[in-house]
């Protein structure tokens, strides 16, 4: 029984971590008034860069950092299109989602003799309690360090957005950019920084998949996590703690299907597969209530426009 | 203001250019590969379309292309391929290959099945074949190619049964279907065969990830099985299987690979792999067609007897003697002494025997 509980917690944390990084990225971008639908594409780039740099340098943390940088660079594209050129943010985001997997696959084939999978890295992101000497129920709790990192990021982002002057600036730019501009806040600069930060976080999310959960990039490593992360942003009412909690909930629902499945009492696995989504809908109806996006989210800001 | 306009025009031009560049590179990528030249000339031309996995998918597309390349080397036949980027490309790609003069056209993977049927219908003078699919009604110019995946699954099940010390083994499936049933029931039967031989009871836990792409779910399920005491887990779960192998690595337990030798993913943990040699079957069917044999209108199945399935030769992780015993089991399957079940009903009949 104890080992079932620790297993449940372990799976929940493992599952929710890539989502949590990406969802935090979504929060910071949306808070500054830029919708970021391109998270999935940024995660894929991060997943590829992380695994590749991790493989060639032999350093997991080097790969992890590189993944953040790569995600940030792709995000720069989105920022340029949606802030400077005032393009439709939805379209730009979808373009990123198409570019991300395409570029990742193309580079992967270039670097790994035409293969669509990278070679497994030798050093993965370390485990919380190290790799040896842990047995029994505690072993299931021996999660990747990225799990802790995601939680730290959530706390820091919460503090940053709600307890600092900079956070206030970001939120005001997302609610009423014209008013913020009048107060002397550089709307473009803040939006650029926030979108790039969201790309960096999404890149971390991708890398936490391909450097911690599995040791390599595969074309299916990121398949839908970015969209679930976006759902978590809305579910969590555009707050870091809410989005993090939503990711934990998704993870817990998946863990539940794993724990309940395949046991001696047979629940059809098709039904179990529906469980995470049913739980999400029920909680959404019962507990979450109305959630409102930052007012200026999705609208390009034009200086001096009436 | 003027600067802004100029900037906008410049950007628009840049974007148009980059779009054009995209188009160009895509064309290039999709361009049919140069056919192999060979000393022996033959006017027979065989071509294939990949499914969306692409030509270097380290799985059946790659294997099929390797088969065609061998065919070209041995017989001088013209071979080429087109990669399909998405499912809607299947029909177009088959038509393009038909126009380029191919006489036998392969669709690799059951995803191509409907496209092959459609193309075969509009080009009755061309010959088509499809891997991993059998039609209810096969047109005269189409051949289905299936594998008896239950046979290598039985063999690796036997290996698992012989290797387990905890008397608990696991199976992780992708999405439950007739195709994956072959893997599951073949495996279970193999485990029970070994259990009977050893005179002990071995429990098989079976769980599906309900996805072929969710590596985290595959890892979670496998971690649960290992934590429940399983010491060998076999997977037939595609991309979710990457997670299964990783779970084995972290738990320090055994895992059995699928389709091709997956030992390179975890050399110390992959016990063996159940192989499906798509390339060999593709080559053989193509050769029959070249020799003028009538292959259309039927589904051909390939298994141990045709040497199109098997287990990996590398066996350093197996206990002493198990590899040899397993090869004998393979012989028994070939001779018909063991009839390997591929469905639930057949499995139940097999168990009660």
Notes on the structure:
The complex is a heterodimer of chains A (306) and B (353). The mean pLDDT of chain A is 90. Chain A has 306 residues and is mainly alpha-helical. Chain A is globular, with a radius of gyration of 20 Å. Chain A contains eleven helices and no strands. The longest helix of chain A has 30 residues, at 2-31. In chain A, helix 2 (39-57) packs antiparallel against helix 3, helix 3 (60-84) packs antiparallel against helix 8 (187-213) and helix 5 packs across helix 6. Chain A has helices spanning 2-31, 39-57, 60-84, 89-111, 145-163, 165-175, 177-182, 187-213, 225-235, 240-260, 269-288. Chain A has one domain (2-126, 136-288): ABC transporter involved in vitamin B12 uptake, BtuC, CATH 1.10.3470. In chain B, strand 8 (232-236), helix 8 (240-251) and strand 9 (254-259) form a beta-alpha-beta unit. Chain B folds into two domains: 36-147 and 279-302, Response regulator (Rossmann fold, 3-Layer(aba) Sandwich); 150-275 and 320-352, 3-Layer(aba) Sandwich (Rossmann fold). Mean pLDDT of chain B is 86; it is low at 17-40. In chain B, helix 2 runs parallel beside helix 9 (278-290) and helix 5 (150-163) runs parallel beside helix 6 (178-198). The termini of chain B are far apart. Classes of the chains: A mainly alpha (306), B alpha/beta (353). The A-B interface holds A 3, 7, 10-11, 14-15, 18, 85, 105, 109, 113-117, 120, 139-140, 209, 213-216, 218-221, 223, 254-255, 258-259, 261-262, 269-270, 272-273 and B 11, 53-58, 176, 205-208, 210, 212-217, 219-221, 223-225, 227, 238-239, 242-243, 246, 249, 265-266.
């Amino acid at each position: 029984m104890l080992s079932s509980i620790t297993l449940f917690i372990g799976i929940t944390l493992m599952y929710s971590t890539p989502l949590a990084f990406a969802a935090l990225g979504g929060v910071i971008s949306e808070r500054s008034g830029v919708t970021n639908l391109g998270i999935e594409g940024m995660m894929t780039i991060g997943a590829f860069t992380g695994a590749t740099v991790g493989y060639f340098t032999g350093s997991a943390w080097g790969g992890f950092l590189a993944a953040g940088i790569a995600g940030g660079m792709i995000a720069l594209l989105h920022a340029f299109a949606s802030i400077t050129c005032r393009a439709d943010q939805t379209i730009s985001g979808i373009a990123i989602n198409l570019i991300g997997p395409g570029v990742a696959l193309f580079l992967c084939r270039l670097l790994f003799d035409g293969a669509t999978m990278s070679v497994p890295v030798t050093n993965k992101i370390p485990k919380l309690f190290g790799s040896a000497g842990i047995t029994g129920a505690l072993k299931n709790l021996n999660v990747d360090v990225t799990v802790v990192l995601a939680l730290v990021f959530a706390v820091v982002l919460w503090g940053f957005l709600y307890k600092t002057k900079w956070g206030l600036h970001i939120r005001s730019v997302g609610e009423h950019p014209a008013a913020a501009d009048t107060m002397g806040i550089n709307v473009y600069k803040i939006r650029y920084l926030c979108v790039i930060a969201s790309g960096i976080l999404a890149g971390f999310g991708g890398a936490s998949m391909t450097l911690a959960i599995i040791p390599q990039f595969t074309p299916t490593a990121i398949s839908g996590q970015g969209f679930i992360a976006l759902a978590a942003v809305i579910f969590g009412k555009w707050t870091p703690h809410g989005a993090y909690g939503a990711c934990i909930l998704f993870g817990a629902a998946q863990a539940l299907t794993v724990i309940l499945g395949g046991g001696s009492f047979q629940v059809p696995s098709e039904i179990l597969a529906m469980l995470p989504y049913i739980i999400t809908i029920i909680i959404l109806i019962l507990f979450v209530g109305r959630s409102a996006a930052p007012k200026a989210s999705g609208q390009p800001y034009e200086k001096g426009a009436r | 203001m003027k600067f802004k306009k100029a900037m906008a025009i410049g950007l628009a031009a840049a974007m148009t250019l980059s779009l054009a560049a995209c188009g160009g590179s895509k064309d290039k990528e999709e361009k049919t590969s140069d056919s192999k030249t060979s000393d022996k000339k033959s006017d027979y031309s065989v071509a294939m379309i990949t499914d969306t996995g692409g030509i270097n998918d380290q799985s059946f597309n790659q294997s099929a292309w390797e088969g065609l390349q061998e065919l070209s080397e041995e017989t001088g036949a013209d071979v080429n391929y087109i990669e399909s980027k998405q499912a809607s490309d299947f029909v177009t790609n088959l038509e393009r290959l038909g126009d380029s003069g191919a006489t036998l056209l392969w669709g690799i993977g059951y995803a191509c099945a409907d496209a092959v049927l459609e193309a075969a219908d509009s080009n009755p003078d061309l010959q088509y074949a499809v891997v991993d699919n059998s039609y209810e009604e096969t047109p005269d110019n189409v051949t289905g190619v299936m594998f008896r995946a239950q046979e290598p699954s039985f063999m690796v099940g036997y290996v698992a049964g012989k290797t387990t010390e905890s008397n608990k083994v696991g199976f992780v499936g992708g999405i439950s279907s007739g195709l994956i049933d072959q893997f599951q029931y073949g495996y279970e039967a193999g485990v029970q065969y070994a259990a009977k031989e050893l005179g002990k009871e071995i429990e098989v836990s079976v769980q599906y990830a309900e996805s072929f792409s969710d590596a985290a779910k595959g890892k979670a399920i496998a971690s649960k099985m290992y934590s429940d005491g399983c010491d060998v887990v076999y997977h037939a779960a595609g991309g979710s299987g990457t997670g299964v192998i990783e779970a084995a690595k972290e738990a320090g337990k055994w895992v059995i690979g699928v389709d091709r030798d997956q030992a390179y993913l975890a050399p110390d943990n992959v016990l063996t792999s159940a192989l499906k040699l798509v390339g060999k079957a593709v080559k053989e069917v193509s050769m029959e067609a070249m020799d003028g044999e009538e292959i259309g209108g039927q589904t051909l199945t390939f298994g141990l007897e045709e040497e199109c399935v098997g287990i990996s030769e590398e066996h350093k992780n197996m206990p002493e003697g198990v590899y040899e015993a397993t090869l004998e089991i393979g012989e028994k399957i070939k001779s018909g002494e063991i009839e390997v079940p591929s469905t639930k009903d057949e499995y139940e009949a097999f168990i009660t025997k």
